[in-house]
Amino acid sequence: MGVVGVIPAAGYATRLQPLACSKEVYRVRGRPVMDFILERMRLARCDELRVVTRPDKLDVIRHARRRGAVVVQARPASLAQSLLCGLRGLGPGDEVLIGFPDSIWEPIDGYRPVLELLRSGWKVALGLFEAEDMQRYEPVLVGPGGRVSAIEFKPANPSSNWLWGCAAASAGVLLGMRGYDEPGLFFDWLSRSGAVGAVRLSSSYLDMGTPEGLRAAVGA
After folding, report:
1. CA distance 185 to 121
2. What is the per-residue pLDDT across 176-212, written as a single tens digit (0 to 9) for each?
3. Which domains does the chain have, with CATH numbers?
4. CA-CA distance, 53 to 104, in Å (whole number)?
5. Residue 217 binned pLDDT confidence (cut-offs 50, 70, 90)
6. 50 in Cβ contact with 72 (< 8 Å)
7. Which CB contacts under 8 angstroms, 24+ apart, belong to 150-153?
């Protein structure tokens, strides 16, 4: 059984255009933003890091390889499909860390408690972050013992101010995303049977997926 970090980086970032480069290598705090998630996954002692990206995103391909990641070239139609591409060749028991290359969060060792939670028996373990403007996120409803009861998808009236920003699950469980466009929708389905746990990590979360988020990150 190994630990593999999978980073979906095949999107078009249409909301951020025009950019002089792919958003994953846009410099924030003096570094390509993708380096932050690579750093956090390495601290979790990943055996391998995989970056899923399109063949035409040459700057992402070059940078990922320079950072020692395996590049999986694909043209997935959705976020869930991108993650599924990153599972190729893994055994069902391999542990997979999911992280997004356009986010920065604390603590830097946040995958450690997430992995501990996964290994305590949950099928999926989520790392949660407190944030505002939850209408554009996936609020997570958490009960006693860290049990997730539901995950809302960009709701008009959020029931929680905690979003999931990273996750861990076995490759075998994640294969169940087939038929879903978003991993959060799959995790919500699993949560209805009590299979998803969560740990609150911090209120430090920056998302560069929107112009507002990018401006906030650059100015932070």
Report:
1. 21
2. 999 999 999 999 999 999 999 999 999 999 988 766 6
3. 3-219 (3.90.550.10)
4. 19
5. low
6. yes
7. 150/188, 150/191, 150/192, 151/184, 151/185, 151/187, 151/188, 151/191, 151/196, 152/188, 153/182, 153/184, 153/185, 153/188
